[in-house]
Write a structure and sequence with these properties.
This protein is an alpha/beta fold. It has helices spanning 3-10, 51-71, 87-90, 93-105, 120-126, 144-163, 180-191, 203-212, 265-272, 280-283, 286-296, 300-307, 310-324, 328-346; strands spanning 14-20, 25-33, 39-40, 43-46, 77-84, 110-111, 172-176, 195-199, 216-217, 230-233, 252-253, 276-277.
Length: 352
């Protein structure tokens, strides 16, 4: 791939490669856009097959964070870090402290947090070397419950749009992936009287849900065939694609997974089938809203109140889509881009 061509095409500001000889740390930090403020995005640890695969992923994820943060009404830009390695082998205090030093070297242009295969324990080590970090145990902690809360109110907003009623009592919701976010989402859904069908590739996640909630379990590949009101993808992305769309028997797709659509055109395919799509970066913004609250001064009740505004933001996306005759995915982009451009314009005058 031509990196500079890609950066120019989508407006990336910075792509930083780093390596630590002592620990074997290898990673890439991408800063996409800082119009609204410093770039905030988590650190993902993944055993990428190639370096190019890692570059493509960090570029995609950082740009997604710009849109997510803008659409959530936050005064921060978008960034992301990917660390290349096997999470079961590379983790150590020295490894994450070495990473923290690289974060500190960016001098506040990028603020990190946990993401796939990193957790609050890892972030504690990172924080020993940098102040540019959120989601620590001593402050907001694990963002997963807040992400789940946002998805829960987002599902309610989507039901309001699709069915005219936001009650989930008696609704059937298929949850794909019941890790930290999916588990907390199931808790909300069951508490409101929804019928919940789950799947996961990890038996321990299934066992936890089965032991605590009256859920139905299906094999991971069968989740697409479940007759339901809402399909909630809460695992990895690109699960809405040419193979899965014809199998869907839902009226709404609304979940916590990032980059749910394999390609942009799949939003149109869902619309053709009468399936309402809740844009992923709007509905799953609860976690970043929560950690952003740390920057302002952490207050859990205020964070929860802001996360619940996902409901109104999704209704706004649906309104834009109907008024402009575009997909909900494009409507979300319009909403985010309009906010970035507006703030950019009001900052055009010189103030000493």
């Amino acid at each position: 791939m031509n990196i500079f061509e890609e950066m120019a095409k989508y407006g990336y500001e910075q792509l930083v490669f780093f390596y630590d000889k002592e620990t074997g740390l290898k990673g890439i930090t991408c800063i996409h856009d800082t119009t609204l403020g410093p770039a905030l995005g988590g650190t993902r640890l993944w055993n990428y097959a190639t370096e190019e695969e890692a570059i493509i992923d960090v570029l995609r994820l950082a740009r997604g964070m710009t849109y997510k943060n803008a659409a959530a009404g936050l005064n921060i830009g978008g960034g992301k870090t990917v660390l290349i390695g096997d999470a079961s082998k590379v983790k150590s205090e020295a490894y994450f402290r070495a990473f923290g030093r690289f974060v500190q070297s960016l001098n506040g242009r990028y603020i990190t947090a946990e993401d796939v295969n990193t957790n609050v324990n890892d972030m504690d080590y990172v924080a020993m070397e940098t102040k540019y970090i959120t989601g620590l145990r001593k402050t907001s902690g694990d963002p997963s419950p807040f992400t789940a809360l946002g998805v829960y109110v987002g599902i309610k907003a989507s039901c309001k749009e699709k069915f005219g009623d936001d009650s989930l009592k008696g609704r059937t919701i298929a949850v794909q992936g019941v890790g930290s976010v999916g588990y907390n989402l199931v808790k909300h859904l069951i508490s409101e009287g929804a019928n919940v069908v789950i799947c996961d590739i990890k038996q321990s996640n299934i066992d936890r849900c089965v032991n605590e909630f009256p859920v139905t379990v299906v094999e991971p590949d069968k989740i697409y065939d479940v007759e339901c009101d809402v399909f909630a993808p809460c695992a990895l992305g690109a699960v809405i694609n040419d193979d899965t769309i014809p199998r869907l028997k839902c009226k709404i797709v609304a979940g916590s997974a990032n980059n749910v659509l394999k390609e942009e055109r799949h939003a149109e395919e869902l619309e053709k089938r009468g399936i309402l799509y809740a844009p992923d970066y709007v509905i799953n913004a609860g976690g970043v809203i929560n950690v952003y609250q740390e920057i302002l001064g952490y207050d859990k009740q205020e964070a929860e109140a802001k996360v619940k505004r996902v409901y109104e933001r999704l209704l706004e996306v649906y309104r834009i889509a109907k008024e402009e005759g575009i997909t909900t995915a494009k409507a979300a982009d319009r909403m985010a881009e309009k906010r970035i451009q507006t703030i950019k314009n009001i900052r055009s005058n010189y103030i000493k």
